[in-house]
Amino acid sequence: MDMSAGGRKGLSLFALIMIGIGSIFGSGWLFGAGAAAQVAGPAALVAWVIGVVFIGMIAMSYAEVGSAYPIPGGMARYGHLSHGPVLGFLTGWAVWIATASLIPIESIAATQYMTSWSFDWAKGLVDPATHQLTLSGTAVALVLTLALWLTCFWSVQLLARANTVLTLVKFAIPVLAVLALIGSGFHTSNFTAHGGFAPYGWPAVLTAVTTCGVVFAFNGFQAVVNLGGAAKNPGRAIPLALVGALSLGLVIYLALQVAYLGSVPPELLERSGGWQGVNLNSPFADLAGLLMLHWVVTMLQFGAFISPAGSNIANVASAAYMVTNLAETGFFPRKLAAVHPRYGTARPAMWLNLGFSVLLLLTVGRSWQALAGVVSAAMVISYLIGPVAVGVLRRTRPDLPRPFRLPAAGVLCPVTFAFAACALYWSKWPETGKITVLTLVAVPVAALVLWRRGELAQGGAASGRGGRGASLLRQFAPAWWMVLFLVWTATVSALGGREFGGRGLLPGELGTAVIAVTAPLFYFWAVRSGVRAHARGLTGTLSPAETTPAPTVTADDGRPMVSV
């Protein structure tokens, strides 16, 4: 993944689709079906459909912004371009946390699947009572994280060339697993026994969307947006790659979920007291072992290394792009954006991401399920700026070349924002509170950086009145909507229904209704703030090195290339 300007163009549409599919089929398919079934029962199938609709709406809003501003790692910059430096850092911080967190979670997935090995030491990597990594399991996950990071550090170009092959292997393994599990004996009674199709109610289905790896799995779309700036024709390639990767991903994930639900032995369901009691360390490998499908177990053990390793090629590159974008806006040290002259990689950024990965492993990364919930909530926060940026730029930059335009954006953007707000609420308390605090840590950091600059960006320097304090307040004005939105959502989550982890003061679906009704108000406030930020000259611009070439039209493609 070449970080240099000269290496940013040339990805074909097929290669971009392969990147998207490769990211979608990471560790999510290894655990998502089992985790979703445990929370929602057979109704987990609905969770996958809701998840892909939600992610598809988010992805299409990013497709418009991403095709207009085809910046590698651009999701960390769009807030700056639409609202200015403070919101840019706030959203960029959230995007970086969500992206960098994917690196250790893939190693955790591989470690948990190692418990299906026949070696005694492997079975001790996960505590059978708590289903969390033991001390030795954490050590193995650390070793795997470091090994993969070093491989990308020294040989990222080699891995990038091998990505298509890895993706095809990753695609073949779940397909073969589905066929083998269904062919070994399919129990249709599992879909209605032990409480029916939705034994734990529809709130459990909504919770499964954000806490059981559904959003986590489809989050692979970010790799297309973040690396789509390196495509030959970003305006055409980004939306087509998003549709192709998400559609194929949904088909495979639904097939995996059906195979898992129908292959669980009825006696195991009976003995476990229903789906909530079926808790397998390595869901598909353990299930294949119960069914005496030893060749499938071996294949899955192999896939447990191939899938995470292949996904982390894009994860490591995307996380490095996030850091370099934040460094280019001045909120991270500019030394982090330094690119190695020979290897074309931002090595200081990679070192920062490695340190963050180790920190996560040693604190909250005790199991794939535990870390996936936190990561998914961070991902949802990172999605918020997409539809908002579309609304702002449609008003402030109407003449900006947009090779892809989101249809009915006036309706879809506020609806998409409300959907994202509900998904954050469904993440359940206290995860919503934890990720809100982690995101809002960026606020005092932004204030300190702007204060130390003296010349507080364009808006502060231009006004010349009130000194640093007044200029600082002007810089923060376009970002207050995000701060209050996160505080509001976390508060409703804490008071919401017990099925969503709250205190029960807003029982049932009342909490979801409150979020759904108030979210559009925050959306229109956000758009208005962005328009004002543009009028005051607070928003960011691209450097000449980041802009794309002038529009060109080829005989086989009548669409112009992007020009910023």
From TrEMBL:
The chain crosses the membrane at residues 12-31, 43-65, 86-113, 133-156, 168-188, 200-225, 237-260, 287-306, 350-368, 374-394, 406-426, 432-451, 472-490, 510-527. It is found in: Membrane. One of its GO terms (molecular function) is transmembrane transporter activity. One of its GO terms (cellular component) is membrane. Its main location: membrane. It is a multi-pass membrane protein. Keywords: Membrane, Transmembrane, Transmembrane helix. It comes from the Bacteria. Residues 544-555 have a biased composition (Low complexity). This is APC family permease. It comes from Streptomyces nigrescens. The lineage of its organism: Bacteria, Bacillati, Actinomycetota, Actinomycetes, Kitasatosporales.
